[in-house]
Amino acid sequence: MTAEPADFDALYFRSALGRFPTGVTVITTEAREDHQPIGLTISSFNSVSLDPPLVLWTLTKTASSLVHFQHSERYVIHVLAAQQRALARKFARGSQASRFEDVELTHAPNGALMLDDPQCTAWFECYNHSQVEAGDHFIFIGQVERCHRGSGQPLVYHAGDFDLTPSAKPLSRL
Ligand SMILES: Cc1cc2nc3c(=O)[nH]c(=O)nc-3n(C[C@H](O)[C@H](O)[C@H](O)COP(=O)(O)O)c2cc1C
Fold this sequence. Notes:
Blueprint: H1 10-17, E1 22-23, E2 25-30, E3 37-42, E4 46-49, E5 54-60, H2 66-71, E6 74-79, H3 85-90, H4 96-99, E7 105-107, E8 113-115, E9 122-134, E10 137-149, E11 156-157
Antiparallel strand pairs: 1-11, 2-3, 2-6, 4-5, 5-10, 6-9, 7-8, 9-10
Flavin mononucleotide binds next to β3 and β5.
GO molecular function, one term: FMN binding
Organism: Paralcaligenes ureilyticus
Domain Flavin reductase like: 17-164
């Protein structure tokens, strides 16, 4: 059996996908050759498996950072908080150097470059487990080696905007 061809255009498909609200992450690593920091905003993050602990995210084949993530050993996925809209926008445009201007950096326990930002509501240090080619994207599967959970409200992405993001007060139920 084969799939029927789509009866919609890419713009309509994209806007339908946008009705699914997601969180927002910034994913960081460093270039193998010169250790230059590499990072970008990603909303396609999701959980895969608890045992072993696996997560996934997808990256367009046209991303200039693709080659760096394909060859990196580890990366860190930072889940952004409600008050980090500007960071989400910053890491979705401009040069790699400009994204890291005025951004404090540190290293996760197993050595991956990460943001030194206590506002992030969680972070996951991942071993670069595998990559699957899927259409115009690659699916990255990360094996989580270390993680940390905070208590802030999440930044929420929906229909191309952050307007479903709740007010930035700490969550009481955690
Ligand atoms: C909220 C938000 C979510 C995004 N999610 C993704 C994503 O899941 N996958 C992707 O390939 N690009 C995503 N992008 C776009 C990238 O952040 C953007 O194309 C970035 O400039 C790519 O960087 P690079 O070309 O330097 O690698 C997202 C952008 C925003 C603002």
